[in-house]
Design goal:
Shape: elongated
Oligomer: single chain
Structural class: alpha+beta
Number of strands: 21
Largest sheet: 6 strands, mixed
Radius of gyration: 33 Å
Number of helices: 10
């Protein structure tokens, strides 16, 4: 065992060329290529310097070994490949000096006692291990393919489940549950109530009503204006469902009006878990310290991240069990507050995680942090089932997602 020779880093090329054609081995393996060689033959190379000292490589032909590479010549009574597997199994790194830059002394390695099989048995051991390595490599490739396939299937299943759900194909319609148009009436009544209480502005009373005309086309009525929107309708929904705009059926980023001295929840983005569930943690803070410069929310609200990559990773939550029922968090959140009990919270959470909502979102901003464009959420069409059907849909989605391990 003998170390190679020093070579200037300026003489090592990272790419193999006509001039720099000889491999150069250092303490951590192949360093690059050089114009000259100092070794010719089949050798084991043990790295003797650096974090990976003790690693073993096989080098053949013409190559250059640096001072950090220990050339290990084998006598005729040892098989090169047996030597490689044996030295690797010895975990030579354990004999390195414990310093900031670990080093391996040849004088320590050569003192290690080893059991030496007959030469023919060495060959059989090496052949057996090579076959095992080949089998392991094939298994790893197959395993990687299987894991990738499982992931793709899971993602497609998730998308399919959510898409079927918001199209009314996941659970059967039940006539006794009525028509979702009743919910729109309840929403209008709740808006009038909040307006009288001073908690809603007059502009928020101007709602959109979407209906199917006698010509079987969809129209939208806003005040006295009626517009054909048939081309906007993305898919058919059951006759007991209705289409609406999100800003018609939800308050978006509403404000909380509370005593400044009470405790409230503070939820930064890192406290919201990604996934298809609703999981978050909060810090308890005095409301007066967080009510400004942050997005407000309260028990019964649904919130989601409006930035990438959190948006695609489905950072969303149903707010509940907050201190005094209120809280605030990052301004990168969008908050939806239903008008009364008209929209099931899990239904809207799953809607926000559907490919219909996510894949069609348009972003703007920097490459590292893009935001959903203003107006996308507010004007997005949402299919609304009767309230009891919303609950059945949400329960069915939860059950199916649990079946596929989400």
């Amino acid at each position: 065992m003998q170390a190679g020779k020093n070579i200037s880093a300026s003489k090592i090329s990272q790419e193999k060329t006509e001039l720099y054609k000889f491999p150069c081995y250092g303490g951590n393996g192949l360093r690059g290529y050089v114009a000259d060689f100092n070794t010719n033959g089949d050798f084991l190379i043990v790295g003797r310097q650096g974090a990976l000292c003790g690693n073993v490589k096989i080098a053949s032909g013409l190559f250059y070994a640096t001072e950090h590479a220990v050339l290990t010549d084998n006598y005729s009574v040892t098989n090169l490949f047996w030597g490689y597997y044996f030295l690797t199994a010895l975990n030579l790194n354990q004999y390195a000096t414990a310093t900031a830059q670990p080093g391996l002394a040849v004088s320590n390695i050569v003192e290690v006692l080893i059991p030496l099989p007959p030469i023919q048995e060495q060959k059989r051991i090496a052949e057996c291990l090579m076959q095992a390595e080949q089998s392991l490599t094939k298994y790893e490739i197959a395993q990687d393919k299987l894991e990738k396939l499982n992931l793709e299937i899971h993602l497609k299943l998730k998308k399919s489940i959510l898409q079927e759900a918001i199209q009314g194909k996941l659970v059967p319609q039940i006539a006794s549950e009525g028509d979702a148009s009743v919910l729109l009436q309840q929403i209008e009544q709740e808006k009038q109530k909040l307006f009288k209480e001073g908690r809603l502005k007059k502009k928020d009373l101007l709602s959109s009503t979407i209906f199917r005309g006698d010509d079987n086309k969809y129209y939208e009525q806003i005040g006295e204006d009626c517009t054909l929107i048939d081309e906007e309708i993305p898919f058919e929904i059951p006759s007991t469902w209705v289409w609406s705009r999100i800003d018609t059926v939800f308050q978006i980023n509403p404000k909380n009006y509370c005593d400044d001295s009470i405790n409230a929840a503070f939820i930064p983005m890192e406290k919201i878990n990604a996934g298809y569930g609703s999981s978050f943690e909060y810090e308890s803070r005095i409301w007066g310290t967080i009510k400004k410069s942050f997005t407000h929310f309260a028990d019964g609200d649904v919130a989601f991240a409006k930035i990438t990559p959190c948006f695609q990773n489905r950072k969303s939550m149903i707010l509940k069990d907050l201190p005094n029922g209120i809280g605030a968090g990052t301004t990168e959140l969008k908050v939806l507050r239903p008008y009364g009990e008209t929209i099931n919270l899990w239904y809207i959470l799953y809607f926000l995680e559907s490919s219909y909502f996510i894949d069609e979102a348009t972003f703007k901003g920097t490459a590292n942090q893009q935001r959903i464009i203003s107006g996308y959420l507010e004007h997005k069409l949402i299919p609304i089932p009767p309230f009891e059907e919303q609950k059945r849909i949400a329960e069915r989605i939860t059950h199916l997602l649990s079946k596929i391990g989400i």
